[in-house]
C-alpha cells in the first residue's frame, strides 16, 4: 500500500501535496485545504459552519468529521490565570488536545478561552482525536485570538516493521505502537502521547521522527489558510506581567535569600516550601512599600519570576539541583511487596517523597467493564478485563480538598499508568484484574511510581506478567535564544524530577517500559516546542534510568509468584443436570441471587448443563459448594418411574394451575390448568381443587428443553362426561409446562 512508510530511504521520498480551494457564496468565503498523506487525505475547511465563533473549522479524514470552535473573551479573567476550557461533545481523549495547544498561548494572556470539539460523524475506521487537535490548531490560527501556532498532529502505527500514518482502527488492532505526536514549525515537538508493546528504543524514536515530518505538512496547510484569510490577531488591552523595574528591585531584595534556600540540601518538600514562603512574605511587604500602588498580581509575579530565575540558573550554570542530586541521579528508592496478607496482591513503592500503595484484586471475567456505545464505535473496545484506578487524595500534598469523583489529574495519570502495564498482562488470564494505586505522598511523578508499584503488586499476586515494568519522569531547564525566542540556546535534562522541578521547569516527559523496550510515553511541554534532538536525548536518558529502577525493584521481587496466594480467587465449573436446572436457578433466578449475595461468588452459565462459579477466596468457594449441594441434593425424584401414577398433594392454588408435591422432601412443581381436566378451565377452583387435597397424577419425565417436570391429571380422568374421545396409550397428549405447552406420549 502506498501509504505504508518503510524504514530507510523511503521516508525521504514521501509524496505529500497540498490542495487549496477558496469559494465565495452568499454566506461568505469558504476555504478548504487538503493534505495528501499517501492514499489518505486530511481536509480542513472553514467559513460555512458556526461563523459567530472567533474561529471555526471542520476537519475530515475518510468519513469521520469533527467541528472545532474557538472563542475567547476580550475582558480578562479576574483570577489572573489562563482559564482554558476544552470540551468534547461525544468525544473521549480531550486531554491530548488541551496539552497540545496550551503551551502556545502567550505569557500573561489571562482571558477566558473555550475550545469546543464536536464530533459530527464517525465512520468506525478513522479515529477523531487527531482530527480534533488539528481542528483546534486551525480554529485558533484562523481566529484573532493571540496564539503562537499553528501546530499539526498525526497518529503513527507500526505493523510488521512498517510505519503507518493515521492508520485505520483495523490496522491499529495489530499495531505495536499507538503514537500521537503534535509538532510545531521547524520540526519541533509540543506533545507526545504514546502506548506501545515493548517496542525497541530505536523503533520508537523513528516513529517520533516520522510523525514530526508529517505534522509539518499540516502546519503548512493551516498557514496557507491563514495567509489567504489575512488573519490579524487582536492586541489584548492588558497582558498580566510585572514591570521590569519591579522585577529588578525584587531581584535585589530576594535573590540571595532564595538561592540560600535552594542550595540548602537538608530541606525536604515541606520545609523548602515553608522557607520560600517565608522569603516571599518578607519580600512582598518590601515591594509594596516601594510600590504602594502596584496591583497584587504584579507583586506576586515579581517574586515568582525571581524565584524561578534563581532555581533555573542553579541547574543551568552550576549543574546542581535543589535536593543536592546531579542531573542524572535518581532519588532513593525502596520497595515492599505482600504488604497486606488478605489482599490478592500488594506493594509499596517509595521514591524520594513520592509514596504509592498498589493493590491487586481479581474478579470474574464477566465483571469486566463494558464500554458505552460511543467508545465502542470510536475504539472498537467493548470490554476491559484489566484496569488501573489511580487515587490522589489531598493529604498526599498536605492539603484539604474534596474526595468525591475523579478529576482531570486522576483520569490522566491513571490512564498513563494503565498503558504502562497493559502490554505485559497475559491475554488468556482467567480473571479480570484491577490495580488500585493510592498516592499517599507526592513530590513528583506519582503516575510513574504507580507503574512501578503496580508491576510489583501484579507479581506479588501471581499474575504471570511477561516482564517487570518501571517508569520515570524526565525534566528540562532551557534557555531561549535572545535573538530568536522560539529557539533553545542551552538546556539541561533532569532525571527523576521533583514536583518543584516540574512546576518551574519546561517539560514533564514520562516514559515507562521493560528492560527491553518502551510501553508508554507522555510528553507535556511548557515552551513552544522541543527540537527533535532534545527529544531523542530525553528518551535515551529515561531508558537508562528505567533500567536502573528495574534493578532496584528486582531486589524485592524479581518474577511473579509461581502460584497465586492461598486466599486468592477460585474458578470451578459445576455440572447441573437439566432435570435439576430449574431447582438450581430457582423461580426468577432467586436461588442464584441468594447464593451470590450470601457467599460473594459470581455464577455464569457455560452450556446447557455447566455453570462457572467464581469465588474471591477459597472459603467463599467452599461456602458456595455447600449451598449448591444443598439445593441440588439427591431426592426421591430419582425413584420416579416414567408413566407411573402417583398421589400428589396440592400445596398452592395459582391462576394457571396448582403447585403439587409427589413426596414431602421434593420441591413443589406446577400442574398446569391444561393438564387438570379434559374440560378447558380458567382456574383450578372451577373443578373444586383446594390446598391440601390429594390427587392422582401421571409422571412423564422432564421436558428436554427447560428441565421442567411433566405431570398430568387429565389422562387419568374419564372423558365420557365431557364428550371427549377416548385417548389410547399410544396417542399424543399436550402437556402444560407453565409457560406454554410441551408434547409427550402417554404410557
Concise summary:
By secondary structure, this protein is of the alpha+beta class. The chain contains 15 helices and 34 strands. The chain has 5 domains: 4-229, Ribosomal Protein S5, domain 2; 244-318, Arc Repressor Mutant, subunit A (Orthogonal Bundle); 333-554, 2-Layer Sandwich (Ribosomal Protein S5, domain 2), CATH 3.30.230.70; 570-631, Ribosomal Protein S8, Chain: A, domain 1 (2-Layer Sandwich), CATH 3.30.1370; 636-745, Beta Barrel (OB fold (Dihydrolipoamide Acetyltransferase, E2P)).
List the helices and strands and how they pair.
Blueprint: E1 4-5, E2 16-25, E3 28-37, E4 40-46, E5 55-61, E6 64-76, E7 84-89, H1 94-101, E8 111-121, H2 129-142, E9 152-159, E10 162-165, H3 169-172, E11 177-184, E12 188-199, H4 201-229, H5 244-262, H6 269-290, H7 296-318, E13 333-337, E14 345-351, E15 354-363, E16 369-370, H8 373-379, E17 383-384, E18 386-391, H9 408-421, E19 432-441, H10 446-460, E20 470-480, E21 488-495, H11 499-503, E22 507-513, E23 518-525, E24 530-531, H12 532-554, E25 570-575, H13 578-585, H14 590-599, E26 602-605, E27 610-615, H15 618-631, E28 645-654, E29 657-661, E30 669-672, E31 694-702, E32 709-712, E33 732-736, E34 741-745
Parallel strand pairs: 7-8, 18-19
Antiparallel strand pairs: 1-10, 2-3, 3-4, 4-5, 5-6, 6-8, 9-10, 9-11, 11-12, 12-23, 12-24, 13-14, 14-15, 15-19, 16-17, 20-21, 20-22, 22-23, 25-27, 26-27, 28-29, 28-31, 29-30, 31-32, 33-34
Helix pairs in contact: 1-2, 2-4, 4-12, 5-6, 5-7, 9-10, 14-15
Amino acid at each position: 500500500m502506498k501509504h505504508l512508510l518503510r524504514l530507510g530511504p523511503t521516508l525521504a521520498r514521501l509524496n505529500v501535496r497540498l490542495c487549496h480551494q477558496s469559494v465565495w457564496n452568499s454566506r461568505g468565503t469558504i476555504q478548504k485545504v487538503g493534505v495528501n498523506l499517501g492514499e489518505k487525505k486530511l481536509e480542513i475547511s472553514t467559513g460555512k459552519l458556526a461563523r459567530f465563533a472567533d474561529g471555526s473549522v471542520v476537519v475530515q479524514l475518510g468519513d469521520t468529521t469533527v467541528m472545532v470552535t474557538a472563542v475567547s473573551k476580550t475582558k480578562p479573567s479576574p483570577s489572573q490565570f489562563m482559564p482554558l476550557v476544552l470540551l468534547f461533545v461525544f468525544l473521549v481523549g480531550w486531554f491530548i488536545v488541551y496539552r497540545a495547544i496550551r503551551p502556545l498561548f502567550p505569557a500573561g494572556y489571562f482571558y477566558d478561552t473555550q475550545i469546543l470539539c464536536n464530533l459530527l460523524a464517525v465512520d468506525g475506521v478513522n479515529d477523531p482525536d487527531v482530527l480534533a487537535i488539528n481542528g483546534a490548531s486551525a480554529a485558533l490560527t484562523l481566529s484573532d485570538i493571540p496564539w503562537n501556532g499553528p501546530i499539526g498532529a498525526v497518529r503513527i502505527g507500526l505493523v510488521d516493521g512498517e510505519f503507518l500514518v493515521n492508520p485505520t482502527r483495523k490496522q491499529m488492532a495489530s499495531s505495536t505502537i499507538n503514537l500521537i505526536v503534535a509538532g510545531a514549525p521547524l520540526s519541533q515537538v509540543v506533545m507526545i502521547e504514546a502506548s506501545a508493546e515493548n517496542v525497541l528504543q530505536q523503533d520508537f524514536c523513528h516513529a517520533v521522527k516520522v510523525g514530526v515530518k508529517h505534522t509539518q505538512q499540516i502546519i503548512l496547510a493551516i498557514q496557507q489558510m491563514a495567509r489567504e484569510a489575512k488573519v490579524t490577531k487582536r492586541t489584548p488591552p492588558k497582558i498580566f506581567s510585572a514591570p521590569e523595574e519591579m522585577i529588578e528591585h525584587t531581584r535585589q531584595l530576594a535573590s540571595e535569600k532564595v538561592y540560600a534556600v535552594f542550595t540548602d540540601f537538608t530541606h525536604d518538600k515541606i520545609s523548602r516550601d515553608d522557607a520560600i514562603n517565608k522569603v516571599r512574605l518578607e519580600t512582598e511587604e518590601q515591594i509594596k512599600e516601594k510600590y504602594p500602588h502596584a496591583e497584587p498580581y504584579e507583586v506576586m509575579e515579581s517574586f515568582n519570576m525571581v524565584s524561578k530565575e534563581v532555581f533555573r540558573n542553579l541547574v543551568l550554570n552550576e549543574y546542581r539541583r535543589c535536593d543536592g542530586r546531579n542531573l542524572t541521579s535518581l532519588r532513593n528508592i525502596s520497595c515492599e511487596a505482600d504488604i497486606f496478607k488478605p489482599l490478592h496482591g500488594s506493594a509499596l513503592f517509595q521514591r524520594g517523597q513520592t509514596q504509592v500503595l498498589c493493590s491487586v484484586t481479581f474478579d470474574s471475567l464477566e465483571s469486566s467493564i463494558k464500554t458505552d456505545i460511543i467508545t465502542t464505535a470510536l475504539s472498537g473496545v467493548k470490554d476491559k478485563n484489566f484496569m488501573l484506578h489511580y487515587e490522589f487524595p489531598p493529604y498526599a500534598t498536605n492539603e484539604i480538598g474534596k474526595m468525591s469523583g475523579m478529576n482531570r489529574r486522576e483520569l490522566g495519570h491513571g490512564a498513563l499508568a494503565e498503558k504502562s502495564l497493559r502490554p505485559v498482562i497475559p491475554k488468556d488470564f482467567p480473571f479480570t484484574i484491577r490495580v488500585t494505586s493510592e498516592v499517599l505522598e507526592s513530590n513528583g511523578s506519582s503516575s510513574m511510581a504507580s507503574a512501578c508499584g503496580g508491576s510489583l503488586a501484579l507479581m506479588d499476586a501471581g499474575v504471570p506478567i511477561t516482564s517487570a515494568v518501571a517508569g520515570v519522569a524526565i525534566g528540562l531547564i532551557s534557555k531561549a535564544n535572545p535573538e530568536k525566542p522560539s529557539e533553545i540556546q542551552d538546556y539541561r535534562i533532569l532525571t527523576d524530577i521533583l514536583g518543584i522541578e516540574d512546576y518551574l521547569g519546561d517539560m514533564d516527559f514520562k516514559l515507562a517500559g521493560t528492560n527491553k523496550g518502551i510501553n508508554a510515553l507522555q510528553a507535556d511541554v511548557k515552551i513552544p516546542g522541543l527540537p527533535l534532538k532534545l527529544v531523542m536525548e530525553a528518551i535515551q536518558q529515561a531508558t537508562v534510568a528505567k533500567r536502573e529502577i528495574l534493578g532496584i525493584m528486582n531486589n524485592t521481587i524479581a518474577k511473579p509468584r509461581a502460584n497465586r496466594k492461598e486466599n486468592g480467587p477460585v474458578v470451578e465449573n459445576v455440572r447441573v443436570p437439566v432435570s435439576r436446572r430449574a431447582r438450581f436457578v430457582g423461580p426468577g433466578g432467586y436461588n442464584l441471587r441468594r447464593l451470590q449475595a450470601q457467599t460473594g461468588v459470581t455464577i455464569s452459565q457455560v452450556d446447557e448443563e455447566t455453570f462457572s462459579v467464581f469465588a474471591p477466596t477459597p472459603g467463599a468457594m467452599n461456602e458456595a459448594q455447600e449451598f449448591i449441594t444443598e439445593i441440588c441434593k439427591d431426592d426421591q425424584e430419582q425413584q420416579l418411574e416414567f408413566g407411573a401414577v402417583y398421589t400428589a398433594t396440592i400445596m398452592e392454588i395459582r391462576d394457571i394451575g396448582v403447585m403439587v408435591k409427589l413426596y414431602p422432601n421434593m420441591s413443589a412443581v406446577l400442574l398446569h390448568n391444561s393438564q387438570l381436566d379434559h374440560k378447558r378451565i380458567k382456574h383450578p377452583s372451577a373443578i373444586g381443587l383446594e390446598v391440601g387435597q390429594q390427587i392422582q397424577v401421571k409422571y412423564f419425565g422432564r421436558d428436554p428443553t427447560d428441565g421442567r417436570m411433566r405431570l398430568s391429571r387429565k389422562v387419568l380422568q374419564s372423558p365420557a362426561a365431557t364428550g371427549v374421545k377416548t385417548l389410547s396409550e399410544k396417542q399424543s397428549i399436550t402437556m402444560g409446562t407453565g409457560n406454554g405447552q410441551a408434547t409427550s406420549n402417554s404410557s
